[in-house]
């Protein structure tokens, strides 16, 4: 069970890294857009996060449900915003900065809570 937990956690990290990388690579671009790294990253992070909670609940570890709820809601908002703007040529700068802030915030919750 521990191996499965580590594999799913690894995939979760890969997803968040891909999302963050897809955002950071556009920092200097004047026109921001939702790219495939962002789309695939949030999809993987979201699904792996759900699976990770299931694995942890099935094991003998305590799960902080408040933390999971906060991370779930933030990730769901990122997922919806990303998918809703996937086909657009450009996204507003405010939306880009919101996605970056939400991503960093969710990573921060995982580390500091």
Protein architecture, described:
By secondary structure, this protein is mainly α. It is built from 4 helices and no strands. It has helices at residues 2-24, 36-58, 65-84, 93-112. The chain is elongated and about 50 Å long. The protein starts with a helix and ends with a helix. The model has no long low-confidence stretch (mean pLDDT 96).
Low-confidence stretches: none
Summarize the main sheet: none
Mean pLDDT: 96
Number of helical segments with 4 or more residues: 4
How many β-strands, per DSSP? 0
SSE pattern: HHHH
Shape: elongated
Please state roughly what percent of the residues sit in beta strands, choosing from under 5%, 5-15%, 15-25%, 25-35%, 35-45% or over 45%. under 5%
Distance between the termini: 24 Å
Helix content: over 70%
Radius of gyration, in Å, reads 15 Å
Give the class from helix and strand content and strand pairing.
Answer: mainly alpha
Summed up:
The chain is mostly helical. The protein has 4 helices and no strands. The protein has helices spanning 2-24, 36-58, 65-84, 93-112.
Question: Which key terms come to mind for this protein?
Answer:
113 residues; mainly alpha; 76% helix; 0% strand
